[in-house]
């Protein structure tokens, strides 16, 4: 029995070690893409690129939080997930507000810049998503990281479609539609993560209560 427990613990430690390395790589990729996209978003006037840049920054922060709580207990990881969910939700609301403001101004972004930067961002996010795919069914913290990477890849595809739409129509509404979709995806993911984290906290409280009753 002792040997089996040791093997299980060693395996868990190995998994955490691999996951930690993946998170560090993901964090660095997201920070680099944040710098690229925020500059491109401002220069091109694209709300979807700006949304994606802020998403990169938020994901980098999320990966940092995940690295911090990786070796901690279920309660701390679940609470960190709640904090990340709040950030994702606020990000979604902010982008919706910016999209509405740009709609009122009737601004038209630069389609070429959107397409080029969107393609680079897609390659970056697909790389991160593939690295994190193996951990998508973990706890709420791991799931939140996976959902962030998945949403980013979907968002990049949408940015590229928006670039085609802006190029073909000469209007800014495709960019605004994509930005709104990205915002709603972020809000939806925040709801999913919150539910998962709250369920983990409830399960942990029930487990503690059972132990106290038996004591």
UniProtKB/TrEMBL annotation:
Transmembrane annotation, as ranges: 22-40, 60-78, 85-104, 110-133, 153-171, 177-198
Main subcellular location: membrane
Membrane topology qualifier: Multi-pass membrane protein
Subcellular location field: Membrane
InterPro entries noted in UniProt: Cation_efflux_TM, Cation_efflux_TMD_sf, CDF_Transporter
Keywords for the protein's UniProt record, in alphabetical order: Membrane, Transmembrane, Transmembrane helix, Transport
Domain Cation efflux protein transmembrane: 23-201
Entry annotated with the keyword Glycoprotein: no
Protein name: Cation transporter
Organism whose genome encodes this protein: Stutzerimonas frequens
């Amino acid at each position: 029995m002792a040997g089996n427990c040791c093997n299980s613990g060693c395996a868990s430690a190995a998994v955490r070690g691999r996951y930690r390395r993946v998170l560090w790589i993901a964090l660095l990729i997201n920070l680099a893409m944040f710098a690229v996209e925020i500059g491109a978003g401002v220069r091109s006037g694209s709300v979807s690129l700006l949304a994606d840049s802020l998403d990169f920054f938020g994901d980098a922060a999320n990966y940092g939080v995940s690295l911090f709580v990786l070796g901690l207990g279920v309660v701390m990881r679940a609470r960190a997930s709640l904090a990340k969910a709040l950030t994702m939700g606020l990000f979604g609301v902010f982008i919706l507000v910016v999209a509405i403001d740009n709609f009122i101004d009737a601004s038209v972004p630069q389609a070429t810049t959107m397409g080029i930067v969107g393609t680079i961002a897609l390659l970056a996010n697909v790389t991160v998503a593939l690295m994190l795919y193996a951990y998508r069914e973990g706890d709420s913290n791991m799931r939140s990281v996976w959902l962030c990477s998945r949403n980013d890849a979907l968002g990049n595809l949408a940015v590229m479609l928006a670039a085609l739409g802006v190029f073909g129509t000469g209007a800014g509404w495709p960019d605004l539609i994509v930005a709104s979709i990205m915002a709603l995806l972020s809000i939806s993911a925040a709801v999913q993560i919150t539910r998962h984290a709250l369920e983990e906290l409830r399960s942990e409280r029930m487990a503690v209560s059972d132990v106290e009753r038996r004591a």
